[in-house]
Amino acid sequence: MDYEAIVVGGGFGGMTAARDLHDAGHAVLVLEARDRLGGRTWYKPFRGSDKRIEFGGTWVAPRWQPHIRAEIERYSAELIESPVPAEFAWSLGGEFSTAPNPLPVEEWLDFERGIRAIDNAAARIRFGEAPLDQRGLEDLDVSFDSWLRGLELPRKTRDFLMAWAGFFFGAPCSEVSGLHILSWVAGFENSAVAWYVAVSQKLAAGTAGLIDALAEDSAADIKLGAAVDRIDTDDEGVTIATRDGGRFAARAAVLATPINTWHALTASPSLEGAKAAMAQERMAGHATKLWALVQGVKGNFYGVGWDTKIKWLATEYSTPEGDLLVGFGTSPEELEVTDETAVAGAVREFLPGAEVVRTDAHDWNTDEFSQGTWMAYRPGQVMRTASALQRPEGRLAFAGSDLASGWCGWIDGAIESGHRAARAAREMLSTTAVA
Question: Which helix (H) or strand (E) holds 179?
């Protein structure tokens, strides 16, 4: 065999696994279906300009995220901050406001009560110590909107909390497990308020800079445009077939592709139990992320709405042509990100007097190699699947942000999973003689 290990998928999970395996002295092949590395991150120019921006995963929080912090330190990656907002807009409870505070004073005590309930529930989670299907958390693995209804909060407060959770998880709160949402609060030291203010840092050289560093350090043979059709495993090793007729063998492999693509993969033996179930059920994340070049914005803008097509809209960069705003929605049916007219109209729900010069986006939901955005467990999926998704099957280990114990859905979670998958693959390699 030319390779001791094969990694399928060149996102942060896969490339971390490849780098770790190389560090342990193993020859690695990376098979990536796209014509680039990075997976659900993609740093490229905004349409019609040279300004590079993130079309996929973007923000990091190294104070709370140890795995991305370690990579930032290892590669001396520089961080920059998102702009501090100066102008605001809120569309909550059927009303539009440009006040600095999203909630009326008469709801402040209820908001504090809601935040306290969220923080207390999050404190029950042993964040990052083990997968999320921890005993005693079954009552949280329900839809977040149903859990929130139990707090009996006033409408604007409830809409604000729903909007925040919705745009961060890329799905309506009826589709996402409250346990998964609350786990992120746990990651921010059981503080929902810290979550609101902490997500502001990004890589100065973009996610591509860090992916390139991982790829260089991995010394892997990287084959782009190598979509995998079939994975066969036995007691001796793994054989992988690609669409273009390639056939590769190794003594261990790591599957580091999004859960939502697993249904299209033929595996022998077939994926078992929870993995087979998730391949069919899919996870819920189907965010719409868009960019808009806008003129006429007074100061750095920040807007949140629950009854708007875009749930979160904010200034990220200022350019000579205007401000570049990034927005997130929760439903591709509600807003088609490649429809420039529709996106411009959605931006004007927040900024009615602004001129939308140009828009750009990548539709991750129709992308064959993602079929969704970042991980959002559906209600009930956490307790049924979280531990099992991480377990190797035969000579096949698994990686990807979808499978993290801690920051599931973040770059940090992808790196965590890559470390774990590499450890599993090293164990496989240490217990088998060279074929």
Answer: helix 178-187
**How far is it, in rounded angstroms, from Cα 2 to Cα 239?**
12
Is this prediction's pTM over 0.85? Answer: yes
| Residue 202 near residue 79, CB atoms below 8 Å | yes
| CA gap 14, 11 in Å, rounded | 5
Distance of CA 248 to the CA centre of its chain: 29
Residues of the chain predicted below pLDDT 70: 1, 432-435
Question: For residue 360, what is the DSSP state?
Answer: E
What does the longest C-alpha to C-alpha distance in the chain come to?
72
Distances (CA, A) of 90 to 4, 80, 115, 290, 306: 54, 26, 19, 19, 9
Sorted by where each starts, the structural domains of the chain and their CATH numbers stand as 5-40+205-281+378-430 (3.50.50.60), 83-199+288-363 (3.90.660.10)
Report how far apart, in Å, the C-alpha atoms of 411 and of each of 15, 66, 136, 148, 296 are.
Answer: 12, 11, 28, 27, 34
Question: Over the stretch 254-272, which tens digit does the pLDDT of each residue have?
Answer: 999 999 999 999 999 999 8
In sequence order, the β-bridge partners of residue 254 are: 7, 397
Burial label for 66, CB within 10 Å (0-12, 13-18, 19+), is: middle
> Residue 160 carries which side chain, given as an amino acid letter?
F
| DSSP character string of 197-254 | HHTTEEETTHHHHHHHHHHHHHT-EEEET--EEEEEE-SS-EEEEETTS-EEEESEEE
Q: Which residues contact 57 (CB under 8 A, 6 or more apart)?
A: 40, 41, 207, 374, 401, 410, 411
Torsion of the alpha carbons at 389, 69, 217 and 434, rounded to the nearest 10: -40
Q: Give 306-319 pLDDT, tens digit per residue.
A: 999 999 999 999 99
- Which residues fall within 8 angstroms of residue 381, CB to CB, at 6 or more apart? 141, 177, 278, 281, 283
Distance CA 264, CA 228 (A): 10
Quick check: helix, strand or coil at residue 93?
coil
How many Å apart are CA 215 and CA 294, to the nearest integer? 36
Burial (Cβ within 10 Å: 0-12, 13-18, ≥19) of residue 87: middle
